[in-house]
Amino acid sequence: MRLAVILGFTALALGSNALYTKQSRKFPEGFVFGTATASYQIEGAWNEDGKSENIWDHITHNKPHVIADQSNGDITADSYHKYKRDVEMMRELGLDAYRFSLSWSRILPSGFTNEINQAGVDFYNNYINEMIKYNIQPMISLYHWDLPQKLQELGGFANPLVVEWFEDYARVAYELFGDRVKDWITFNEPKEVCYHGYGATNLAPQLNSAGVGDYLCAKNLVIAHAKAYHAYNNDFKPSQGGRCGITIAVTSLEPLTDSDEDEAAAEMHRQAEWGLYAEPIFSEQGGFPKEFSERVAAKSKAQGYPRSRLPEFTEEEKAYVKGSADFFGINHYTSRLISANEYKGEHPVPSMYDDIDTGEFVPADWPTSASTWLFQAPNSLYNVLTHMHKRYSGPVLYVTENGWSTGEGLQDDERVQYYRAALEGALDALDEGVRLEKYMAWSLMDNFEWMRGYTERFGLYEVDFTSPERTRTPRKSALVYKHIVANRMIDHNYEPASLDITIDEGY
Ligand code: GBH
Known about the structure:
Layout: H1 2-14, E1 32-36, H2 39-42, H3 55-62, H4 79-93, E2 97-101, H5 104-107, H6 118-133, E3 137-143, H7 149-153, H8 162-177, E4 183-188, H9 190-199, H10 213-235, H11 237-240, E5 243-249, E6 252-255, H12 260-282, H13 290-302, H14 315-321, E7 328-331, E8 335-339, H15 352-356, E9 359-361, H16 380-391, E10 397-401, H17 413-431, E11 436-442, E12 461-463, E13 472-474, H18 476-487
Parallel strand pairs: 1-2, 1-11, 2-3, 3-4, 4-5, 5-7, 6-8, 7-10, 10-11
Antiparallel strand pairs: 8-9, 12-13
Bound molecules: ligand GBH.
The site of ligand GBH has 15 residues, from α9.
């Protein structure tokens, strides 16, 4: 205690001067480190033990050409059978927590709660119990993109009834697993669900209803989230004592220049990219973001639509959604510089990007990854954390994903460099009072990377997708992450002696 006071005082006294080296900073007591995955990306067993078809089974089987290597998640990392090895890896890394998602169609094959598939429930119970055995906190995402195909055929997120379907499913999950699971994420990345799935063709179900379907989805999804939140808050939290929140992908969107025009353009871009989902839940005024709503209403009118393509929230809905989260989950990967007039691309009319009407720029000196969209920008995680802290009056934040893609290979120095820089940003944000409590690296291991198949790798562990065992081997980044987790600080000079990894005492 006394030592801590003295150290704290010294750090304070030295402030940001050169003697206060960044290396001396530690993550706070109780800070939670983990890794993240998602059901369709790792489980496999796509039609085993009563699981029904979901929209990713459907698209990969019926339109294999839309996946970069024509692959699918039929087996992928085979976690359905290899889950004990997954937990062993968590122990090798010394993790405090693990974020994974439930496959809706594995638990509820019809999509509805008329039938609960016991084998699916058993699988998740086994996975969770194996984590609990080793003091690893499970964190569940209810929805990471794999809607039961039957529900898609009824309109999926374009049908307002999805609100009921999702609440029913969420209640089943709380009931089954809530005694042991204390962190619930309703949705993973609503913009990716709605824009990429309904407004474009970048993800299943590829509806390509640009500037219309994506906005219908946005409203329904936000209300479905709030329903599931209130269900937890009213009927489960009192006895189970956990938290319920949502995870939103937040790209750092900074103005290209310091002109007012570029600042306004960056703000418009933020309101559309993640504000559609964050503002109704976390802002003071509630509802969809103001300037962007006005923009879409005006464009819709000029385009001859009888009403705005972006639906509105009633006052009652606004009040119901406002504040419906115990934490804000942030998936953060990259940045863009936003311009009012330069670098504008071609966009379909109508579409969300036509509505936004800004240009995006990536400086040539930002390191590139194996993914076309992923660049390493300076201070990117720091910018996002501090922006959210200020914008929404200091909510509890979790980083629920953060990571870097490479090709195959174990010597992933770029990933190491990316993680160290991101975590320095997290420490900088913590120094400023940002209430960041948990950090999940994406990903524990290589997995099915959606439209990119197995061509891009995000894992701390490499997975050999050609071996029946789906052998998992630690990359250099796994050893470095382990060292950070164990020491609660970033040692930029640490070089693992070898890529051997073992379970430390106590795990
Ligand atoms: C995360 O999304 C996902 O939650 C996770 O499942 C995934 O494995 C991880 O990223 C790594 O990709 O090709 O131009 O259409 C991060 C946000 C949004 C980034 C969709 C890629 C596609 C851009 N992603 N985006 S494009």
